[in-house]
Amino acid sequence: MAIKRQKESKAHDVPVTLPDENTPPPKNNLPHEKTSTAKEGITGRILLCFSLYTSIGKLLSTKQAPGSIKCLHGIRFISMSWVILGHTWFVADVHIDNLLQVKEVTERFTFQAITNATMAVDTFFFLSGLLMSYLLIQQIEKNKGSGKAVPYWMVYVHRYLRLTPTYMFVLMLWVWVLPYMFSGPFWPPVLLIGGIEPNCGDKWWTNLLYINNVGKYDKMCMKWSWYLANDMQFFVIGVPLVYILCRWQIFGIVLKMALLLASFITTAVISWDYDLKAPLALGGEPDMSVYYIKPYCRIGPYLVGVSVGWLLIKMKRKQAKSMALKMLVPVGWLVAAATALTVVYATYGKYNGTTFQTESENVLCLTAARTVWAMAIGWVVVACYHGYGGVVDTILSWDAWVPLSRLTYCAYLIHLLVIVAVYLSMEVKIHYSAFTMIYYFLGHLTLSYGLAFLVSVAVEAPLMGVVKIFFKK
Asked: Residue 350: inside a domain, yes or no?
């Protein structure tokens, strides 16, 4: 999930994809100079893609392409850390021996930041829609001036090739490697087909096609990959939506609002019919199967991201410096902060008996909260982009976030392998304490990013280099 100049890709400035924001702009060679790649054959260029020295250098570089949205690096890393924090708790739940004490802790006001860690996933949906819109509109406008058409089919091909090889590599580790690496009283029996999840023997192909969120949650292979299926499906919808928005602006805006309204209505009906409660009991049925993993319930933040990406292109920096907008900046920050805090902490009413006691209140929360959260994050991005971020922008745009941001996709894929391996290979159950869970979280975070680094330089970066060689034209 690294920040991209096009389709979250790692390609440079070529016709089919936009340059990558994470990769420093190429140096200009003098007319009499010849690049080494011009002299090398295709075999040599492919071999160079597997150079650890080159891959590590690119990964650790903090240089960014001109026009990049710098604050997204910090948002991405912090959101990924929040995801790992949530999974550290959710997965540990069945491995704790003092559950009564845990129940008391989870009902505290401060714990709602962990209970609602799923909002971090909606942040990623928002970022995906934002980058897709922001970069595709830039390419459309650039090509409009040159008279060239954007090869939309290649946008889909590049996106698929960008994500799938690394995804399938981690799926292979999950199914055929991890089950044989550990043992213990809690370690699941090793199956010849399916590994830790027997469903993978029959359902792995749904992951390959990004349709594994269609069926029931308990029948999925590599369950946390539901996010990737949703994100790819949103991408398929988002590209023509952006095209319509550029070609027929009013119709595009109406279409976006219609999709959002349809999502709200569908989510409300499902929440009411199944009597879903906020916050969701993650891992349970029907919460996961009928609501949590379904694209029609989760597309709201993505549509908000598309809108913010369009707004960043249309609102020129001179317009953003107008006196009227400057006066609205404090109000915008107050509203964004208030709505974000409300989304995260309002579900405390489930425990203190003051709110969320009626079905209509639960429906309202489950229907609108995620979209409202994305709007709050959208304000942060717009404010930082136009110079109104202050200390927030300084923190989120710190150069040190850039390499960590590039590792987010691999960290998401690998982090649950780490968590499962740690918890299920233990000889005794976990005895809860706040210090113990903090220790596990920091360990999971460090190990996940460490392994993500290895996966990135050994699998992701080389394969993307090969893709760029064959699809440059």
From this structure: yes
Average pLDDT score over residue span 307-314: 92
- C-alpha 108/C-alpha 276 separation (Å) is 21
Number of structural domains found in the chain: 1
461 is a domain residue: yes
Phi, psi of 102 (to 5 degrees): -65, -40
Residue 241 pLDDT greater than 90, yes or no: yes
Among candidate residues 21, 4, 75, the one with its CA nearest the CA of residue 383: 75
pLDDT at residue 193 in the model: 42
The four Cα atoms 82, 83, 86, 87 give a dihedral, to 10 degrees, of: -150
CA-to-CA distance for 437 and 96, rounded, in angstroms? 11
User: Do the domain assignments include residue 463?
Assistant: yes
Residue 75's CB is within 10 A of a number of other CB atoms, namely 24
Q: What's residue 143's pLDDT?
A: 82
Residues 13/417, Cβ–Cβ less than 8 Å: no
Q: Average pLDDT, stretch 358-387? A: 92
Rg, Å, the chain Cα set: 23
Total length of the chain:
473
In a domain, residue 24? The reply is no
Helix (H) or strand (E) holding 240, with range, is helix 226-247
User: What pLDDT score does 144 carry?
Assistant: 79
Q: How far is the C-alpha of 473 from the C-alpha of 17, rounded, in Å?
A: 10
- Section 415-436 average pLDDT: 92
Range 144-152, long-range pairs (CB < 8 A, 24+ positions): 148/15, 151/15, 151/16, 152/239, 152/240, 152/243
Contact 459, 169 (CB under 8 A): yes
- pLDDT for 317 equals 61
103-112, 118-127, 457-466: the lowest-pLDDT one: 103-112
Domain span holding position 274: 36-471
